[in-house]
Design brief:
- The chain is of the alpha+beta class and about 70 residues long.
- The chain has helices spanning about 10-15, 40-50, and strands spanning about 20-25, 55-60.
- The protein has a two-stranded parallel sheet.
- The longest helix has 13 residues, at about 40-50.
């Protein structure tokens, strides 16, 4: 169990297999208070992770703002 924020590399270092990790990030800045990465930065991070052996997946997520009004 990881409390707080952990990088994918910290999670891997603690024994979670590379192929079991999926990265989920907010799809737009408005979808979260933190964690959003612009597409160019995210692509660079995914490229770095892949170069280090990561073979999982990535997905954007979005909160339905219909429930917030």
């Amino acid at each position: 169990v990881f409390e707080g924020m952990a990088t994918i590399f910290e999670i891997i270092a603690n024994g979670v297999p590379l192929d079991e990790l999926v990265i989920g990030k907010p799809g737009r800045p408005a979808d979260a208070n933190n964690g959003y990465m612009d597409p160019v930065t995210l692509a660079g991070c995914l490229k770095e992770a892949k170069a280090k052996g990561w073979s999982g997946g990535a997905m954007p997520w979005q909160v339905s703002h219909a429930f917030l009004t």
